[in-house]
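Quick check before the chapter quiz. The format below is the same one you will see on the exam, so make sure you can read both the input and the output lines.
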Amino acid sequence: MTRTNKLASAVKLALFAAVSTAAVSVSQEAYAAEEGDKVERIEVTGSRIQRQDMETASPVTVINADTIRAEGFTSVDQLLQAQTSMAGAAIGSTTNNGADGVAQVDLRGMGAKRTLVLLNGRRMVNSGSGADSAVDLNSIPVAMIARVEILKDGASAVYGSDAIAGVVNIITKKDFEGLQLDFNGSGTDKGDGETGELSLLYGFNTDNGGNYTFGAAYSDRRGVIQSDRDWTKPGASSFIPTGSLAGMVKDANGNWVKRSTGYDFTKDSWFQTPSKRYSLFANMIQELGNELVLSGDILYTKRKSDQQMAPQPADIMLGVCGQARVNPNRCITLDQSMLAAGIKADKTGRVNYRRRTNDVGPRIYNQDVDILRASLALQGTLDINTGMTWDLSYTYGKNKADTWVENSINAEKMTNSVYKNQDAWLSGAPLTQEIINDIGFTERNDGGNEQHVLAGVLSGELFELAAGPVSFAIGTEYRYDSGYFTPDPVIVAGKGTAAQQDPTDGNYNVISIYQEVSVPFSDKLTGEFALRFDDYSTFGKASTWKVGLTYEATDELMLRAVAATGFRAPNVSELYGGNTGSYDYLEDPWKNAQDPQILVNYTSDPNLKPEESESYSAGLVYSPGFIDGMSLTLDYWRFRVTNAITRLDAQKGLKDCHAGKQVACETFKITPSGDLSKFTNPLTNVGSQNTSGIDFNLAYSFEGLGLDWKINNDLTYLLKFEQNGVAYDGTIDGNFGAYAKVRNNLSIQATRGDWSLMYYNRYIDKMDDIHTKYDKNNKPYTAVAKADAVLYHNIVGTYHFTDALTASLGVKNLTDEEPSFVSNGSDGGTVPEVYDTIGRQIYGGVTYKF
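Here is the expected output.
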């Protein structure tokens, strides 16, 4: 009985330590029991079992606050997308078109929806402009982050849906005492793109075993216009400010001639989008007596962001007077000069009119987003066996967004205006203010997301084996998710020149039961087993499992392997999303489209089933005894996703239909002659992903030349990435992003006394740029260009003036490397989500502790 009480007390201490470190840690101090017994029981990312060791079967990358500061990251998406384990093209601060200021993570390039984001070990509400499918990382200020842990294994058996590609667990600063003020800022050497973040952290301990930590942060990010970089390829849109009729324009002599000029939209669009963010956060830990610990955290963030694009490209069809089925009171008259130039009505009696509405002004997208996330947990111990711990928690998240688009165009009013003022519109002269006021409007939308999570878990030791105790965790969870998005009535009615969009509104709930067991088969071999059962109100039941093994071959070498299944439930927007138009960068093999941006109708499906996945990893951790301070990890990984909820490859659909494949024409609603007026890309469960690769890490700490050195190298070698049967490894595309074969990050830090100097670089391998060209007979063929490899060099110095004052100064992209050209890049002739489009940046920061 005495032994049980001592261990229960030790478990209590360990429980308090676990709560204090947010359930995840890189290194821990041993907490002593009453008579000196050391008990280390902490929870690690990827498991709910509190463990005595940190070595698990699953590979985890840890990025601490010092590294975040040293490398000058001002947002979480920048931090994550710089990791070698990322691929694709996650939207973020460089995404100007369609992101609504949101920032996401794309682990393994498998899509943001397949990476689960946790805050302090618990779910974060999806957020953005409404009915969102992933977490907006902008809701989490860098100032509040103690560290970020990236679990690079499938973890659905532990955390449920969305953890197919892995888990990003963001740990906030807590258990803090004192007052700390931080300022960090940056700007380019070209005088733009300034960013600044000011934060305050205050914490205190209480006499009765508590700690309360409070923080506030403000950040401001300024924009960078695309055309302000001399390498930017000018745009050449067919929508021009003077307008065109059937592709014809008036010359200086008043004659109608074929349009020969285009509009450079890069003068109106951002490479770095402006944003302001205000955040308040707090953490508390309080002992209540009777071996109870109350903990909680709360985060509130307001984001005000905007994007800017060229004035609205208005594309309307005008009835021609005198044609059958055309209202004689709603038509334009084709005069002799127009007829002589070949302008005529199509078979429907209409003619196409296009105009870049510069008279009204550029499209300015604004977002005012509020995000609240709060969690409260009660932990305690049970005097059972050697002592068990229990945890009951409630987590609430809510996101509300008001978004609007200034200088939108009402297509119906514009059409009527052209009929009433034909000469004013077709002359090419600037429009009158009366016309501008008539056709322009501000598009207003609103949306949001809400989440409730109730969870309980019991963990401890079941019984002893010769090699040690069998540990377990068993828990249950209830989660409710809802989302909505209400577009402007003009857009819903399809009366705008922007794509038509329907409202989205829906919800679902899920009840889950899970269990984990850790079994020490011998002193060297340990098995980890997890099983989870979920029951969704939408599609029904799902079950997943995970098996991991670790084998300590020697004191220097540990082998590890994991096999797991996973799933991703269809989210609100996939189930209940209204039809949405999207202007995608595509090549029309019929050459009917006048622009590379082609309107595609996106559809959802309430009968979607969950995605299913299998993941495997095997590797080693090696710390050679003959080289003190060195460790190596090498891991092979593979993910396979079936029944993937995806939109098909629209570009392939165009090519297949053009080649005579009727199935492709029917799937995408394209006519064999290339009529794209009903071009549709539906969500389906027929997609697949198959990706594999190798991760390598080298960490080495040593002394030399009177300095303390730290070297760290991360490398990811992509063996394969296939989606829907199409191989993307080693390629880059404006729609799908980058899947470089090799990504490598190297950092070298030298420290002596109060100063340190760090050099780090980031390498992205060359990639194939696959695009369509046309031969002398105007027939399309597939061409392959090369997007060059890039190597970014960065350097930063840090100096501790006193125990209270620390300052740092650094340079990003020291050699001002230009991004690689991509033929169908998403912006400016490249892919800003992949390459650095901002250029050389100077950054620095000051920390003062009171």
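If your answer matched, good. The chain has one domain: 44-221+235-849.
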